[in-house]
Amino acid sequence: MxxxxxxxxxxxxxxxxxNGRWAKQRLQPRFMxxxxxxxxxxxxxxxxxxxxxxxxxxFAFSSENWRRPGKEVNLLMELFSHALENQVKxxxxxxxRLNIIGDISRFSAPLQQQIADAMALTIENDGLILNIAxxxxxxxxxxxxxxxxxxKIQSGELQPEQIDETLLASHLVTADLPEPDLFxxxxxxxxxxxxxxxxxxxxxxxFTEKLWPEFTAQDLDIAIESFSSRExxxxxxxxxxxxxxxx
Length: 247
Hints:
The chain is of the alpha/beta class.
């Protein structure tokens, strides 16, 4: 529900932590927690649309998650494929643009094709942009940006003196999107864990003990209220923001 009394972040980024612990508390296998986490995603996406959020970025599978037990990784890949198969038409129907960010080259050929088809289906949609970070890492993102720039210098397309923050940012996987205004991590940990490292430079951070499968639209509203109460100065003083520099 929209509210004129609060500031709605244009871009929200979320680390969806706590699926495994949620399952463990219920004496269930970790995979059941991941399935419950997918259901939580559905509710948060729906609420972001209703609230007027422009971009939602979810950290689904990090480049470090390959270190998990092979069985769990395989089940996560199956869940990812199943979610794409079952949700993409619903996303399209609701004018949501799906964008998978990360190095998808490590995924199986059928999954890569699913990803390509899902993104192609929704590419013209102009509602909420849903970024799913899969095999993503912030350091990887910066590295691939630098590699692109190095190749352009080698080919003579760019000169080294042209390199600045704007140029580097323009080669990140989120180049055409506003940087996150609000970062949320569920599950009690207070780290950004290699997620959107460059992009989070001035993002407001919000941590909650709630495990991801338990995170609801009401919890998102609480995080947005916290965001609304903060003064975002971007290096300036409070007086500059209020127009009373000489006060």
